[in-house]
Amino acid sequence: MPRIELDDFISDYERAVCYFTLPRLIFRLNPILLFIYFVSIIAAFLATFMGLILGNPYLSYGGTSALAVIILYGIIVFTGRTLLNELRWRKYLAEAHGSTSQESVDLPDPFEDHELYIIPLKEKQTSLYPCVNREGEIIYFIEEKEKGRHWIIKDSLEKEVYTIRAKHARFSIVFTSKAPLILNVYHYDKLLAQVKPRFSFFGSAYLITFFEPQSKIYWVLQSGIFFQRELVGRIYQVRKKVYLDVQKSHFNLGILSLLISTQL
């Protein structure tokens, strides 16, 4: 099987940190608090507006002051929490990368039933790039026929085996910088899997339906991949490589298509 040399490969310690520790540092907004915050902004704005309409300087001044305080509070709290978590994220990752401990401990390997699928971001800038395993062996070649719309998945001998086609999702909302896409995965003309974005206040949320050999439904929330509420994998990025870390029994082309088309 053809292979490539991987430099600066993720260590077992870094892998554990990325899989178990870093996702806990993600700052998630409480929907109730977020609702109260927006209601407070609307109430302060209405007080200011009514004060101007009624010619009441005390009401307009009070509403304006409250609006300024609420907005400033939101900026400090939301931005501050995000920045703090980012610094903690970088600290944990740097410590894991710098760790030289290779002591063996008689404990079960948490990744014994997992597989790693890796896409180097440098190669991903080209129209044809590899997807490799932990040993650097090329599992697939991915050819991007149309930017962000059409991919062909080839085996290690560059024979076409699957096709991914994307279209915009009209009725789904995801608060991210990229427009949500519906992904359809085909083996020739047969639909194997479909990925649909779902409404979420907290970043990426997808529903993956895998049709063959039997129908299975997966949820992807942030970086986590869930099957029947059980965490079965994650997608994460470390030092210019994107990793799909998933249980062997749950790997499918729908999950792979999400790795290929987006960066969570």
Protein described:
This protein has 264 residues and is of the alpha+beta class. The protein folds into two domains: 22-98; 114-261, Porin (Beta Barrel). Helix content is 34%, strand content 31%. The protein is built from five helices and twelve strands. It has helices spanning 12-21, 31-54, 57-98, 121-124, 253-261, and strands at residues 114-120, 128-132, 138-146, 150-154, 160-168, 181-187, 190-197, 205-210, 216-221, 224-227, 230-238, 241-247. Strands 1-12-11-10-9-8-7-6-5-4-3-2 form a twelve-stranded antiparallel sheet. Strand 9 (216-221) and strand 10 (224-227) form a beta hairpin. The two termini are 29 Å apart. Mean pLDDT is 81; it is low at 100-105 and 172-177.
* Inertia-based shape: elongated
What is the N-to-C order of secondary-structure elements (H for helix, E for strand)? Answer: HHHEHEEEEEEEEEEEH
Our count of helices gives 5
Strand content: 25-35%
Q: For the CA atoms, what is the radius of gyration? A: 23 Å
Q: Which fold does the CATH topology of the largest domain refer to?
A: Porin
Mean pLDDT: 81
The main pleated sheet reads as: 12 strands, antiparallel
> What oligomerization state is this entry in?
single chain
Count the E strands.
Answer: 12
The CA-CA distance between the termini, in Å, is 29 Å
SSE order and pairing:
Blueprint: H1 12-21, H2 31-54, H3 57-98, E1 114-120, H4 121-124, E2 128-132, E3 138-146, E4 150-154, E5 160-168, E6 181-187, E7 190-197, E8 205-210, E9 216-221, E10 224-227, E11 230-238, E12 241-247, H5 253-261
Antiparallel strand pairs: 1-12, 2-3, 3-4, 4-5, 5-6, 6-7, 7-8, 8-9, 9-10, 10-11, 11-12
